[in-house]
């Protein structure tokens, strides 16, 4: 008892010291967007648990669901985000800002050590690392995630409209008419996993949305059947009290072992997967059924791209698809007109790279990319 109290007090002190130089705040971006979302066939019944189960197992096994067309879809969202910058920074716009988009069954906290002060103090916060190096970051909750608007998970929360949200927020960062009141001249999009795939779609729809793109936990090669089957996803409202009231099309992992096996690999603190499982967010059926939107070339994008993924990332560097370094390098086909496409494998690291022992080393590699290229 006494020992654990002492350790807790010590960690708290260490964490406030580590955070001293960083200011983070929650901001809300009102966004109004229109996108061409997919229309799923009538075999999918969003009110039926067994139909949802069938939709997911088909999508994750074959990579395709029954899409019968597209529908122009307009929505207004309140997008919640955490902005971090060096404490007291008077000119946060003097360095590039990164717009951060999380992956699935996650929210923006994956970029801030799961909002856990012990993990922040141990170097797992992407946002706090970059603020300590002088950079501003904006980690958004994609619509349907975290504290952002939670509309219909099947017809509204799909990749096309999420890409449009990213384009709208990136555009707002170029002027002072955003909740930060600061205009940034250099904007970098940094995605993780589903957020990276969505970033490719955002670049396809609005090639000038940012100056450079960093794609983490990503490649163009997704293995089938997907290892995500081991998450055994089910309607979140039926699994955990904190999701009570969510429509059934909001799904999440039911299997903690599957969560660890999907998102971790190589060298990591084995107490972390339980923390990320206990704080996991959701995914939607609409997101699962619209993945193809981000697997087509962003031909108009002419900036620079950096792809960086863990060697043990079974979701995007699966040995089934060849050597990890080749999978990353060959992903350049999605950016045929980029000024440059660089890629890097992070040794001994799984999918949620920011929650592995290599975190600081990876953050520093991304910083080096920014220093040399943006
Ligand atoms: C979005 O907000 C605008 C302005 O308040 C409103 O006119 C419009 O009807 C809203 N659109 C949707 C789809 O809710
Ligand atoms: C959870 O997943 C693991 C491995 O992915 C599997 O061995 C186990 O049987 C699953 N648990 C349940 C309750 O299905
Ligand atoms: C980009 O590349 C594609 C094919 O590689 C080409 O057809 C297209 O004209 C290029 N330029 C733009 C601006 O899309
Ligand atoms: C990558 O491309 C090279 C050259 O086209 C090819 O030989 C290799 O098999 C590809 N590897 C993967 C993993 O796609």
UniProtKB/TrEMBL annotation:
Signal peptide boundaries: 1-18
Record-level GO cellular component terms: membrane
InterPro entries linked to this entry: AB_hydrolase_1, AB_hydrolase_fold, AB_hydrolase_sf
Gene Ontology process terms (BP): acylglycerol catabolic process
GO MF annotation, one: monoacylglycerol lipase activity
Signal found in the keyword field: yes
Repressor keyword on record: no
AB hydrolase-1 domain residues: 99-363
Name of the protein: AB hydrolase-1 domain-containing protein
Naturally occurring in which organism (per UniProt): Hypocrea virens (strain Gv29-8 / FGSC 10586)
């Amino acid at each position: 008892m006494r020992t654990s109290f002492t350790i807790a007090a010590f960690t708290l002190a260490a964490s406030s010291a580590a955070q001293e130089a960083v200011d983070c705040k929650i901001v809300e971006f009102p966004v109004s967007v229109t996108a061409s979302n997919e229309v799923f066939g009538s075999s999918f019944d969003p009110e039926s648990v067994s139909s949802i189960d069938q939709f997911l197992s088909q999508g994750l096994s074959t990579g395709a669901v029954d899409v019968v067309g597209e529908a122009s879809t307009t929505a207004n969202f309140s997008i919640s985000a955490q902005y971090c910058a060096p404490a007291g920074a008077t000119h946060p716009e003097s360095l590039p800002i990164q717009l951060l988009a999380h992956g699935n069954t996650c929210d923006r906290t994956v970029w801030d050590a799961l909002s856990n002060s012990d993990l922040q103090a141990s170097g797992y916060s992407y946002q706090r690392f970059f603020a300590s190096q002088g950079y501003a970051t904006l980690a958004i909750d994609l619509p349907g995630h975290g504290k952002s608007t939670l509309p219909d998970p099947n017809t509204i929360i799909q990749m096309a409209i999420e890409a449009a949200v990213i384009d709208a927020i990136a555009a707002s960062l170029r002027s002072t008419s955003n909740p930060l009141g600061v205009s940034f001249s250099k904007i970098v999009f940094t995605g993780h996993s589903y957020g990276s795939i969505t970033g490719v779609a955002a670049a396809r729809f609005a090639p000038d949305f940012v100056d450079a793109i960093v794609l983490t936990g990503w490649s163009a090669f997704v293995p089938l059947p997907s290892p995500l089957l081991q998450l055994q996803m089910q309607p979140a409202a039926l699994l955990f009290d904190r999701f009570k009231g969510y429509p059934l099309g909001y799904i999440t992992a039911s299997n903690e072992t599957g969560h660890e096996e999907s998102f971790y690999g190589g060298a990591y603190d084995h107490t972390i997967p339980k923390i990320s499982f206990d704080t996991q967010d959701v995914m939607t059926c609409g997101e699962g059924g619209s993945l193809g939107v981000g697997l087509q070339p962003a031909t108009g994008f002419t900036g620079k791209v950096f792809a960086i993924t863990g060697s043990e990332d079974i979701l995007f560097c699966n040995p089934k698809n060849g050597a990890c370094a080749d999978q990353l390098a060959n992903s350049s086909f999605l950016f045929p007109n980029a000024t440059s496409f660089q890629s890097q494998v992070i040794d001994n690291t799984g999918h949620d790279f920011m929650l592995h022992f290599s975190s600081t080393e990876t953050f520093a590699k991304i910083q080096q990319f920014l220093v040399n290229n943006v």
